[in-house]
Protein 1
Amino acid sequence: MFLANLKERLASLLSVSADDFVYPVPAELGDLSLPLFALAKSSGLSPAALAQEKIKLLEQSDLPEAIQSFRAVGPYLNFFFKAGVFNREALFDIEKAGPDFGRLAVGRQQKVMLEYSNANTHKEYHIGHLRNLFFGDAVFRILAFNDYRAIPVSYINDFGIHVAKTLWQWQRANYKDVDAPKGWLLGKCYAEASNLLLQAEIKEDGGLEKEKMKTEISTVMKEIESRQGKNYELWQETRAWSIAYFAEIYQRFGVRFEHIFYESEVIDDGLKMVAEFLQRGILKNNQGAVIADLEEYGLGVLPIIRSDGTALYPVADLALARLKFNEYHLDESVYIVDVRQGLYFKQLAKIFELAGENLKISHLGYDFVTLRGGMMSSRNGNVITYSQIWDEAYTRTRHEVVARHQDWEIKRIESTAEKLAVAALKFEMLKVRADKIITFDMDEALRFDGFTAAYLQYTGARLASILRKNETLTADYSLLIHGKELSLAIMMQRFPEAVAKAGFQRDLSILARYLFDLSQVFNDYYHEVAILKAEPALSSARIGLLRSLRQVLVNGFSLLGFDYLEEM
RNA sequence: GCGCCCAUAGUUCAAUGGAUAGAACACUAGCCUUCUAAGCUGGAUAUGUAGGUUCGAUUCCUACUGGGCGCACCA
């Protein structure tokens, strides 16, 4: 990391921290800058006077070779780099590091389990789930890149009351012979069941009808819980459909889990834990239900078991949290779940604290996805499902690819279109900070210009096309003295900083924006400078510059979870 | 009622307390006999309100306004 080292050397000469440096906003002011406001305060000098002091210090020092000049501009100390030297060192550095360029050894192999994609079987998979999946996967990738022993897991809710609702409607609607993915049909049944219940509630005299439905659903639920009978068998069959459907989605998006937990597998241990915690007074009976009373900690009340004796969500989660630490000996267990469950995870952590179990569990929240027409809800069917958005995205990318490459084989067209669609969707979800609500708009999300994955991939494809035409491997990079070459090299050297910041803040939008900025710098350069037609030695050096840029893009794309395309 | 999050250009988003608040989309004027025009160049427009801390506030603090979310049997 040449730029980082350069900053360290300057920092040590000036007795400041490398983190104090900034990059001047109007680039004409310099390549690197040191604002002296904060330092001036402790020294008792004005920032401008301190700048003069530092200038004197620098004049007497043995400066790094890459520094061309420096100058004080008011309270700032600005440095200019020697393009030839900087570029030579910067590119050697990237070539040497290759796929590891940007990697940071901060994780020290700490074991961090990341739980995400907590989908429900028997319910629709929608764009909200996609945000969770892409965010979780990218956090996993960046932590793994930064030397954490990150363990991606998914926890599937296959046992709640929603299952009973779905199966109840499934038997009434009889969709067995409808030509559609079965996982999708189950989601449809869930929405229909919820709707029927809602309608019964609104209707005058609907009370009786609703009670009848609820009783029927409750019967289904109890049969599943008893693990025998027709409904249990139906549960097994339909559950398998959903699981296969999820596996398809994960494969399409290149997401892998080290393990998948199921609610049905931990629920029994959860019930035992509830009994144990009841006995120890950590949980208590109240109005026929079992609750965790956390009022005195300002965390309200968490219901654990319904007054009809059936289990609520936390039962299985209690057992799962314990199981994770016992089986994997974790340093930390992170739940990547919608911010709306923030209170719930505080409650969960508090219960373990009260039980004297020191489990480091934390909640990494992100905000939800909403639609122009209002909040998404699978209960009333106001959703954009995974299959809808995928079909639309793929249709559009395929259309674009066909328009440009009539000569390509179908297989190639389809594979390129698929990669573009995957990248477009992932980038759309990752480019916004996690604590922002995404108001999803299909046309907006599936654009291919501006701040999009297609722009990044197009940048990559253009430079790959040049690299195919000239594969010279040796060159003298100190010939790269164009101002835009220096800008590009500095920007490339800032990749490790972007990775570090994105990883530390667990905010992938930082990396997304960095890659976009980097691409803009290249596209500007591309239009201004001839690469293949420059005189041979210079052309070779420029080819080397592009090779390094490709490496940075490849590394960056892979952290966000999409492919670098050679042609598009 | 209590708690959490958000408020920047017509729209969607940026900006470790620091230099002239940046992009993208849309609108508009240009650029393909240089390597992929899914590109590039130019043009207008913005910090919700009132205070406070500070040499300096989009950023920190307080109040208010507006929007969203969460708070006992949903997950």
Protein 2
Amino acid sequence: MATIAVENYLKRILLLSEGGEEVVPMGALAAALEVVPGTATAMAKALAGEGLLEHQPRIGVRLTARGRRLALNVLRKHRLVETFLVETLKMDWAEVHAEAERLEHAVSDEVLDRIDALLGHPRLDPHGDPIPSRHGRLDSQVYATLATCATGRRLRIVRVTQQSADFLRFAEESGLRPGTELRVDERNLTSGLVILRRNDDSTLALGVAAAGSILVEPRA
Amino acid sequence: MATIAVENYLKRILLLSEGGEEVVPMGALAAALEVVPGTATAMAKALAGEGLLEHQPRIGVRLTARGRRLALNVLRKHRLVETFLVETLKMDWAEVHAEAERLEHAVSDEVLDRIDALLGHPRLDPHGDPIPSRHGRLDSQVYATLATCATGRRLRIVRVTQQSADFLRFAEESGLRPGTELRVDERNLTSGLVILRRNDDSTLALGVAAAGSILVEPRA
DNA sequence: CGGATTATTTTGATTAGTCAAAATAACTGT
DNA sequence: ACAGTTATTTTGACTAATCAAAATAATCCG
């Protein structure tokens, strides 16, 4: 059985590699997992030995089919658990990430299937992140962000990447949830400011970094 | 934070010591945790250093107040999770023990409180085991068992200790659940046999060991 | 009492995961 | 092209948890 650390490495590589296809450099992986680079290298070699990823020395790692399958299963657990915590236990979406980070390693496939059924087989978690299917299909549509989309157009928020509790609390208070409609009034890359306008005509300023973590689609 | 291993040691000591009061010998502890005795000794010394238990060399261990508090919290998680799995997710009571064994270490106090509320603050888990209160009170009434009670009297099953899936499946099929009413027709300690009679007059034979894990009270 | 049995502790190794810091390779820009 | 910077790997050490097997203490009985 994969240990918790192994599951975390695989999941993180999946998230850093646009669905497991791209090569992830060791530095990025180590930083994301908050370990020193040498630790990531050591683990990469071990996981390569297990056939869960390919390690191209001095370049990075890429998941094998088996590694990807495992990683998707962990991600599915994470996102379904988050959905469960919000929908069933009525927790705040800012808190659920940390909880799911532990629960994803303790929930069996059996329990997960029942949670999935209880929730009515959701396809998106509370942040709008797609939930991988039981058999490893992951909807990874590429969306524009508030930092990159055209200004002036009517938009709908589809997803809020960035899981920090602080940011999510701020987003909640500011009405920036999946489903919210708005548009970008103005964007100034020099000052790093993005000005949003809500449907009620109120405005809100955001830094580009924050704006980049909010994915949007043109309003239908 | 206590590691998973530490939580398991504390919980096991609690269960082996009638609520944390009695001294548990190392052999019993090691056997229950399926580790070699030396391992249990090593851990006992470490936990004594942490102030979670007292280690009386060559005698055994006893929980301190702090150790007991921690152990009760783990046990509360275990039993509430089991209840949740049966009540909310409709799992079979034979499966839930193994699941709870992992989940008890991943569920936060926050999530637990919400599960507790969702279930309506149950006092017993699906096996009839008492659920410790949030502040560490544990109802530990002493019951007779089918191996020790008087024969002939009308009884009600209150609790099924013994968590193995095999046994629980058998109990389920035989109608031996908490709440079931029956009596002991006959008990032969030489042959090790206990003969039960259900309310519909059907009978069932059980070994004394199995009978000892079914707790009963006189029918009201 | 004292030898045999049984329980417990000690000692020495092992594994997984980690860090610190030295060594090495690759890339960058003039 | 080469010196400097940056990224990666290697090496050596540490911690938590475990096992195997030797050493030691306690208990039981004839």
